[in-house]
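---------- Forwarded message ----------

FYI, see the Arrestin C-terminal-like domain-containing protein record below. Original note from H. follows.
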Amino acid sequence: MGIFCEIYINKPEDEIFRPGMVVSGVIRYTVDKESTFSKITVSLKGVGRVEIEKEWRSDREKTYVKTEHYVDIDNVVTKETVTLPIGTYETPFAFVLPINIPHSLRCYKKFLTEYGKCDIIYYVRIKFDSPGWKLAKRCRKEFTVAPKLNLIPVRLPTVPTICGEQKTLTSIFSSRKHIVDIKANIESCFISPGGAIRFNFEVNNNTNIDIKAVKTKLVEIYSFYTSSSGADLVHTDKVKNTDYKTTEIKSGTCESFDIEMKVPQYIFTIESYATIVKREYFVWIEALLPIPHRNALLKIEVQIGDIAGKDTNTDYVDFKIHNDAPPSYWEVMSEES
């Protein structure tokens, strides 16, 4: 077989890596026959890759791909050609994660005939270069980087803010304007994970029809990018357990409501350090109108994160350190990067 390799990564106290932390450990590799290498390199890598597939014609699909690199640090163990006899060897390593990097992510979204997949991964790798035209041997182990939320820039108001939306309905039987007026007062547009979005809203039904109901919910929007021309794929989904529905609002009446929307502990805005993906959140307040009218919709953007300067050690449920059980030979040894 030539080389068998195992990479052991030292875990932090809370078992979660964050930007700016040290990634250290030891690589143990066994040579089962005398082998010659022109160079041995230990590296820290961070790579993001987005793939978008769209139906081009009924019988064909088109795929768009973009890759970007966040960390690329090489530590050359031996620069000169060396011959290793049969035996087991150890190489310690220690790397510092940069501050301005995105967190680990594995995301797959599908909508009708389109799908988007985004992976942001970090790993330690050892590479054995052989003389001549022989393929290099590589062994790597991934680890998870959780977000350091206090690096998210605050760009939305953190004080009470008033938002509004009006929809004018067409009526062939009346010359006066028929308007559905939605006004909302949100306590803050910047919310911590696990916190609450508090707002009140008023719906003035100045029309000759009844509004069937008003629905509120928190919406998550993923945008995947493979070019600089804009979002190549946008996927919208409701955040579970955040919806609320009112009763009917009669013609010519005005109703107001107070809402406290609980934010799940594990969600947060993604908008920094990666150009291939963005994740945004909006509060939707939607007045449901009878056919043929389109619903009146007020969208309020919110940022979910921690304000700069406030440290966080939140243990996010979707950020778990990978299993430390030794991987199989075929999992760790390859000729790929």
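H. also flagged this: DSSP finds one helix and 21 strands in the chain.
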